[in-house]
Amino acid sequence: MLRIDSALNGRYAQYGQLRDKICQHGFCIGGNWDYDRGSFDTKIWCDREEGETIYLRMPFDVMQGELDGYNTVIRFKEPYIIKHVVHVGLDYDGSSFIDATGFSQFQTPIDKDAPIINKNKWAHISEQLVNESVLPFVQQENIY
């Protein structure tokens, strides 16, 4: 994991309004959300042959409301980059039947926090994404 020093940390936004704007830039709500916290994630690099994907994750806490509500107020925490490595090819373990029949769409990563090479490059790309795609739609002060 590589933490990103960003002006996003500590800023507020209205969840639904922000989601609608940043989804156009490839961000989506992360899979581990709960009603009081979550993250917006985007893929910043993928090598399908090696099974490696680098993501920018922007975690947040819910300050007012519940996460799936359009008017919910969120406050961002420090963004970070994470690299997942997955199996390439067929999965021959016990869940192969489930995967082959379409009931399980994703494999469990081999490494959910693989080492990140070229840290400066990925940090720069991530900072640009946050500055251009997210910061224009958030506020410094508490909005509730």
What profile does the largest beta sheet have? Answer: 7 strands, antiparallel
State the low-pLDDT regions, or none.
Answer: 97-105
Outline, from the CA principal axes? globular
Percent of residues in β-strands = 25-35%
Order of helices and strands: EEHEEEEEHH
Label the CATH architecture: 2-Layer Sandwich
Judged by helices, strands and strand pairing, the structural class is alpha+beta
CATH homology superfamily: YugN-like
Determine and state the CATH class.
Answer: Alpha Beta
Give the arrangement of secondary structure elements.
Layout: E1 2-3, E2 12-14, H1 15-22, E3 28-29, E4 37-47, E5 52-64, E6 73-76, E7 80-85, H2 96-101, H3 119-134
Antiparallel strand pairs: 1-7, 2-6, 3-4, 4-5, 5-6, 5-7
Write structural notes for this entry.
By secondary structure, the chain is α+β, with helices and mostly antiparallel strands. It has a single domain, classed as YugN-like (TATA-Binding Protein, 2-Layer Sandwich), CATH 3.30.310.100. It is built from three helices and seven strands; from the N terminus they run E-E-H-E-E-E-E-E-H-H. It has helices spanning 15-22, 96-101, 119-134, and strands at 2-3, 12-14, 28-29, 37-47, 52-64, 73-76, 80-85. Strands 1, 2, 3, 4, 5, 6 and 7 form a seven-stranded antiparallel sheet that branches. A hairpin with a 4-residue loop joins strand 4 and strand 5. The longest helix is centred in the last third of the chain and has 16 residues, at 119-134. The protein starts with a strand and ends in a 10-residue tail after the last helix. 22% of the residues are buried. Residues 97-105 have low confidence and may be disordered.
